[in-house]
Each structure stands twice: as C-alpha cells, then as structure tokens.
Amino acid sequence: MQCYIYRSSIKDGLYVYLAEEDGVDKLPPPVKKQLGVPEFAMTLDLSADRKLGQENVETVLENLEKQGFHLQMPKDVEQILASIAHEASLKGAL
Q1: How far apart are CA 24 and CA 27, in angstroms?
Q2: d(CA 49, CA 45)
Q3: Is the CATH number of domain 2-93 3.10.510.20?
C-alpha cells in the first residue's frame, strides 16, 4: 500500500501517514490543529514485512485501511502517556 507521510510544523516528532495523497483535508480537526501547516516528508510503499523505525507496520496499515490515516506521536509524549497510565493502574489497584 502506498502512503504519504507529512510532518507537523509545530510539534517535533509528530507525523501523519495518509492513505491518499491529498488526504490532509480529510483529517479530523484536532489532528489538523496538531499538524499546523503539514510538511510533506516522503512517500512509502508499505507492506506487512516492511520494518518501520518507530511504528508497528501492521498497526499503521490497519489504521490507513480503516480511517485513512495513522498518527505517529513524538516518543517523549508516548513515554509520558505510558507513565500516566501506569500510575493510574497502580492507584486503581489500591
């Protein structure tokens, strides 16, 4: 599957993978807001056996097929969210 990758002009490390070349206009408003002015990064030919640096290719393909896009968040945000989820689960266990 061919996909088109854009980087955020305002959030370092935030990328959106699109199933359609002109799919930016179809993104939900909250995603568009985080992108700012989307900057084209590259085109990739994705398949289940392709390795990606930070994302699970099967998840990306599934999101592209179901919703037309996949959002790659900055790594530091993912770590913060994981930490918050971990703390919440510990509090719930008390």
Answers
A1: 5
A2: 11
A3: yes
Tell me the pLDDT tens digit for each residue of 30-48: 889 888 999 999 999 998 8
Q: Are 11 and 34 in contact (CB under 8 A)?
A: yes
> pTM for the full model?
0.76
Specify burial of residue 44 (Cβ count, 10 A radius: 0-12, 13-18, 19+): middle
What would the two tokens of residue 79 be?
């770590």
Tokens of 57: 């290719």
pLDDT tens digit sequence for 54-89: 888 999 999 999 999 999 987 765 565 666 677 777
